[in-house]
Amino acid sequence: MSIVTSILATLVTAEHLFIFYLETIATASDRTAKVFGMTTAELNRPSVNTLFKNQGVYNGLLAVLILVAVFCFASKAAVVALMLYVVAVAAYGSVTSNPKIILMQGGLAILALLSCLL
Description:
By secondary structure, the protein is mostly helical. Helix content is about 85%, strand content about 0%. The protein has helices at about 5-25, 30-35, 40-45, 45-70, 75-95, 100-105, 105-115. The longest helix has 27 residues, at about 45-70.
């Protein structure tokens, strides 16, 4: 696996750790409200708060899997599979929520995929 792929995959990890932080730790913060285009009152609703925390755990675990793929196994195949998953989820979010998600959440993963394939 190339150093460029490792760096890009690590940046995808950082992005997912930031999302984990927003959704799980700073769930009802002003920053989280701004990033997700919601009000803090909305984020403080118990049902929304729980959903955000669950989604945050998903992002945190995805970050851990990417780190394991890159640094423990140095597996290009695992990195490709994880980046394809990130892009697929971003594409779904783009269609169902906000078209910008494909670039915001999928952009670095797309670059990491390209670096794997070149």
